[in-house]
Write a structure and sequence with these properties.
This is Endonuclease-reverse transcriptase. Among the domains are: 122-215, no CATH class; 328-363. 52% of the residues lie in helices and 6% in strands. It contains 13 helices and five strands. The protein has helices at residues 30-47, 98-112, 122-138, 141-145, 152-167, 178-196, 206-213, 218-234, 241-247, 264-274, 282-286, 289-325, 344-356, and strands at 55-59, 78-82, 84-87, 90-93, 248-250. It has a three-stranded antiparallel sheet. Strands 3-4 form a two-stranded antiparallel sheet. β3 (84-87) and β4 (90-93) form a beta hairpin. α3 runs parallel beside α6, α5 (152-167) runs antiparallel to α6 and α8 runs antiparallel to α12 (289-325).
Length: 363
């Protein structure tokens, strides 16, 4: 808000009044004022809601996180009504029936006058993150990525601060599939190859690109953020909603037979196993913030090393099978580097790449 502006009251419209003080963009008071306004808006939106509007979560905070049978007890479990989940400036409305969700949506829309999306799947969120990260990468192209006076290390630091933070915003709560990881890794590799000026004809593998940039993969970054978030939620007070949602489940309803959709607990348990962290006793380490950060960092480092070794071994076995299946024809040998190709068109493409890299015909 700036001086001289006329503002609207939260309920209805008031007479225009002048503002003598306020906050500008970037002010430290802005997040606090936004939180107060958002809380009041949700309070007003929930005034006209019924008890059936929302979901009841059954939870208990003792025992193992991944032992869901303990939630079937009738005497040691608690219940809580939840109508919305908040993350920064985003809100997710939840309900059991379509009618209840419609009432919640109508109340929220009347109170907020904002745009509401009815799809909570991760596919659109991934597409949105990719678009925003691609835009963030394209803006400083001339000033950063194509700047000859900047070191590669400086460019990587700018890439971490500008692009990766945009790409992985909110990844602590993602339930990712392999298709999502592939899309994120594709953008990650394209940006790093642009920064390092690596062309596809240079035949540099993705693992070598990560090693040159000294940066982990997207899968490792997501795993690290989820481990840190799990420890942070565990250290919360017992009345906090994130901890209740993590340790609980919906009171009514059931999952379909077959291969059901992954839950956040499933994704977190897989991350614990991949990082060599015991999912039965992880809470004992998460109670200490410093110790949990150290264990998480070591686990993610081990995961990344195992991932790279697996990719290298898979590539070497694939190359060995290809070499044993078809041997190159000596007639199609490159005049620049003496490499044998399998066909005439392959030789033509390879020689063109060699000339672009500066190789010359030996005299």
């Amino acid at each position: 808000m700036w001086p001289g502006q006329n503002k609207r009251r939260f309920v209805g419209l008031s007479e225009p009044f002048s503002i003598s003080n306020g906050v500008k963009q970037g002010c430290v008071l802005a997040p606090t004022l936004f939180s107060i306004f958002f809380s009041m808006m949700l309070k007003q939106a929930n005034e006209n809601c019924e008890d059936e509007d929302g979901i009841y979560i059954r939870y208990r905070l003792d025992g193992s996180l991944f032992n869901l049978r303990r939630l079937q007890a009738h005497t040691k479990t608690n219940e809580r009504l939840i109508r919305d989940f908040l993350f920064a400036d985003d809100a997710a409305l939840v309900a059991h029936t379509e009618q209840a969700l419609q009432r919640l949506t109508s109340c929220f829309a009347d109170a907020s006058r904002c745009t509401i999306s009815s799809d909570a799947r991760l596919d659109k969120e991934i597409d949105n993150r990719l678009a925003r990260a691609n835009s963030s990468f394209g803006r400083p192209y001339k000033r950063a990525w194509n700047n000859k006076s900047l070191k590669i290390k400086t460019k990587i630091q700018v890439y971490r601060a500008v692009v990766l933070t945009t790409l992985l915003y909110g990844s602590e709560t993602w339930v990712t599939y392999s298709s999502h990881i592939r899309l994120l890794e594709r953008l990650h590799q394209r940006c790093l190859r642009t920064i390092l000026q690596i062309h596809w004809s240079d035949l540099v593998t993705n693992v070598e690109v990560l090693e040159q940039a000294e940066i982990p993969s997207i899968e490792a970054l997501i795993a690290k953020s989820q481990l840190r978030w799990a420890g942070h939620v565990f250290r919360m007070k017992d009345h906090r909603l994130p901890k209740i949602a993590l340790y609980g489940e919906i009171r009514t309803g059931h999952r379909y037979r077959g291969a059901p959709k992954k839950r956040y607990k499933d994704c977190l348990k897989k991350t614990f196993t991949a990082c060599n962290i015991d999912h039965q006793n992880w809470s004992a380490f998460a109670a200490d913030r410093s110790a949990w950060r150290l264990i998480s960092s070591k686990g993610v480092t081990l995961f990344e090393e195992t991932r790279r070794d697996t990719i290298k071994d898979k590539r070497s076995r694939r190359k060995a099978r290809a070499a044993s299946a078809v041997s190159p024809d000596p007639a199609f040998s490159c005049r620049l580097c003496s490499r044998a190709c399998r066909s005439r068109i392959g030789l033509f493409s390879h020689e063109r790449s060699c000339r672009q890299r500066g190789h010359s015909v030996p005299s």
